[in-house]
Write a structure and sequence with these properties.
With about 140 residues, this protein is mainly alpha-helical. It has one domain. Helices cover about 85% and strands about 0% of the residues. The chain contains five helices and no strands. The longest helix has about 35 residues. The radius of gyration is 17 Å and the shape is globular. The protein starts with a helix and ends with a helix.
Amino acid sequence: MTGQFKDSMRATETSGMMGLGAIATVMAALTGTMFGVIVSFPFSLIAVIIFPILLIALVLAAVLAAPVTLGLFPLAYPFLRGRPMLAQLAFPLIGAAGGAVITWLWIALGVLPNQPHSLELYSAIGMISGLVAGAFFGRGLHA
């Protein structure tokens, strides 16, 4: 195997991993939006009736989840490359921890509101979304 062919394999591996990260971002956004709709039930009926509100919430959830799915997962990938069973266990845990940390960071930066109990609510949604995205990413790597 020549060095040139080996480098091209690395390039296709990276583009496939970024595609998988983008799909994991969409899965995290869908999960976070649906949990947000469930948690805020009486007010979420307005978002369901007026569809652009729900669509804006979905785009916002994708933007908020992107640092974990497009940043943290590719950083953890080289450590878990040859270990499929460990990757399927570790990526959901990395996603849950990353979801909690990035949610705390978004609240500290003022992107998400800092109301009483908002840290717990948003952290729970971030952790569940990160868990789902990590499970999807870890399974997609070794499918």
